[in-house]
Amino acid sequence: MGAGKLAPGELLPPMRELAVELGVNPNTVAAAYRTLRDRGVIETAGRRGSRVRERPASTPRELIRVDAPEGVRDVSTGNPDPALLPPLGEALAAAAERARRDPVLYGTPAVDTDLERMAREMFARDGVPDGPMTVTSGALDGIERVLAAHLRPGDAVAVEDPGWGSLLDLVPALGLRAVPVGVDDDGPLPEDTERALQQGARALIVTARAQNPTGAAVGEARARALRAVLARHPQVLLVEDDHGHGIVDLPLHPLAGGTDHWVFVRSVAKAYGPDLRLAVLTGDAVTVDRVRGRQRLGHGWVSHVLQDAVLHLWRSGAVDTVAVAGAYGRRRDALVRALRERGVEAHGRSGMNVWLPVPDETGAVARLLHAGWAVAPGARFRVASRPAVRLTVSTLAMEEIGTVADALAAATVAMSVGRYD
């Protein structure tokens, strides 16, 4: 493989056959296959055998993108609207002043007491079960630590499909195997979730709201159905990601409580700025203790300067969450409505993204680029779901909605009748 003699996706010989061919013990080949799988070079699918991964686990899906040339509007990024992010100067100055008065030294508790208290209050209002808490460097850092604390290379993880590209990269990078779970506007499909767990998935990762890329949000009825599924599999690790907190006006319907091990992670990146690498994480005592222990052996803690800055932002009400959610909602809903008026299927129940199924991603991206719009190829977010493209509405002006809807509709209609010119 290192010499490039095996192509991506190529099926590897059965271990016993290779052992005979090489004249070695089958256990030696099994160990080699296991090492390759753990390093993300190959993937295994039970009786269907092992094959070379389509791309190395360390290759980020973000590389599957279109660079917007000059004069082309880039609606592919997934970034929040800078105009809706709060200024950080006052919060950072307040954090610096607190650090001057009471410097953080070795031995200081990892989580700021006031930050933990306020986070607990917010969790309680949203119906998240009470549990110990820690702070991580963003949602993905928290999810990685939780998966590493509970799972071993080769274990299966049920993931949303389509879903967050960085998470789809993380799972194989940890030597884990992704089992896709279909998603509609209400979140993961219960029947797909049941099937994944019956097939042996040891963890399930669910996005509570503002699902990336589809905008799905777990509603009350869907949450009830998913809790019923989880109640039949109490040994499964449940991970809930609420990165949409602060930019979504839909209520939270948490799933936690039906499994032995669970975590709920809430980051501040979308509402307060991606450079604030901070998320609060709560869960069952065993899981959180494992995460804390591993943190102590690594970077120790998330900077108290950042923790104090986030605390200041929360206390001061620096973000008008109703106004921010409304701003994203108006743009998103207007685009979805405009597309449906043009006979085009589109999804975007919450958050800042709109998901548009298309007959052919390459053709759609090329046509839209020619029309002056750079969109994200759906391949960045898919495992086995149908082709699509993603648009981020965060910087769209309302007067641009009709123009981009016309371009999207034209591209979709042209491809549906076989025109790719």
From TrEMBL:
The entry lists its GO molecular-function terms as:
DNA binding; DNA-binding transcription factor activity; pyridoxal phosphate binding
Domain HTH gntR-type residues, every copy: 1-55
The record's annotation in InterPro entries points to: Aminotransferase_I/II_large, HTH_trans_reg/aminotransferase, PyrdxlP-dep_Trfase, PyrdxlP-dep_Trfase_major, PyrdxlP-dep_Trfase_small, Tscrpt_reg_HTH_GntR, WH-like_DNA-bd_sf, WH_DNA-bd_sf
Protein's name in the database = GntR family transcriptional regulator
Keyword Transcription in annotation: yes
Give the similarity note.
In the C-terminal section; belongs to the class-I pyridoxal-phosphate-dependent aminotransferase family.
Keywords in UniProt for this one? Answer: DNA-binding, Pyridoxal phosphate, Transcription, Transcription regulation
The membrane-spanning stretches of this chain are none
CDD domains, alphabetically?
Answer: AAT_like, WHTH_GntR
A Pfam family assignment: Aminotran_1_2
Highest rank taxon of the organism? Bacteria
